[in-house]
């Protein structure tokens, strides 16, 4: 490809050097043909003028010879002078005929030369036009072949890039799935240890650790990257997290607790989606565990998007019994590690969780503003 490009550049330079010379020769040739045509045309016009002049003179001589001796027949010259005038007129007439013949021959020759010049010029133009068309067709064929070769090369490169992209996507998905499986294995081991433990504090710690590991494992298993291999659909991922939490409930709890979701179609960076999925899992786990005691029925609402403010927000609201700590807009210290984890992870997005009391149904509303995420890492 590089050698071909070098040859093309060299041929272009050589053609550029030869082009002025060919143009100068062509201009000289055109000027010569124009001069020849003009000269031939001038000679032809002069010859026609002379033919007309000689014809007029001959007619006058003929009129003189054939005229009567006198205008009214009153005077008759002697025969000798009259014959002399007739002979002189005949000689003059003969000279005029010779000039007319010569002029006619010159006119015919000039017309022939002019016609030949015009016809030859037309033939030359037709030949040059045909030659240019042939060269243009040849160059078009060469260019079309080059374009075809380049298109084939680009198609091959695109196919190779697409194949590599699919391979990388497969590897990333496989790696994420393996991480999720490994975390699920760790969660299972913690569950086994939880069953063997009799210490309430140890059981609580093991249960919390297992739940968080399950949330992270589910986040890795559910993550699906977009075509750019850098972003993921937030709504699709959050729906998967909600389904996982709902599927992890006992059958009786699944009948008592209903989930409602409202997700706007935003695409976020894969790392941010995973972090928000962990936060959402923590919020849902806390709501399921603490909001509906004594087999209380209720609804958990999950929303993501631009709601009251012009920034993205994550909202989780339940219709349960509520919690304390709303006066300071922070969770109370006795509510566990989950809300501390939520607060720490939310700081990555420049926001601070707001814990409020739900206005309509009671219960708890948690709003997490995400100003940094809205400013830098979102494409709608």
Automatic annotation (TrEMBL):
InterPro entries: HATPase_C_sf, HATPase_dom, His_kinase_dom, Sig_transdc_His_kin_sub2_dim/P. Residues 174-374 form the Histidine kinase domain. Keywords: ATP-binding, Kinase, Membrane, Nucleotide-binding, Phosphoprotein, Transferase, Transmembrane, Transmembrane helix. Its EC number is 2.7.13.3. The lineage of its organism: Bacteria, Pseudomonadati, Pseudomonadota, Alphaproteobacteria, Hyphomicrobiales. The keyword NADP does not apply. One of its GO terms (molecular function) is ATP binding. This is histidine kinase. The keyword Kinase applies. It comes from Candidatus Tokpelaia hoelldobleri.
